[in-house]
Give the backbone structure.
Amino acid sequence: AGLVTAREVEVLTWVRDGKTNDEIADILGLSMLTVKNHLRHAMKKLVVRTRGQAVAKAIALGFLRAEGVRQDGE
């Protein structure tokens, strides 16, 4: 598995914040299919089966900050 891309981390950040694929697509200006693909690729690289596992593993590996700490100051 390769490294998780910046866009995949961005999608995982919104998943962590409780957003649906549809909401993430709206926020990022992407199609829902594109969001699903980014998530699917990230999950494959992280070797997990669910969105929740992907977020937990990304945090554990340091790709993602724990909840409540947004890097953009929101």
Remarks:
- The CA atoms of residues 16 and 52 lie 8 Å apart.
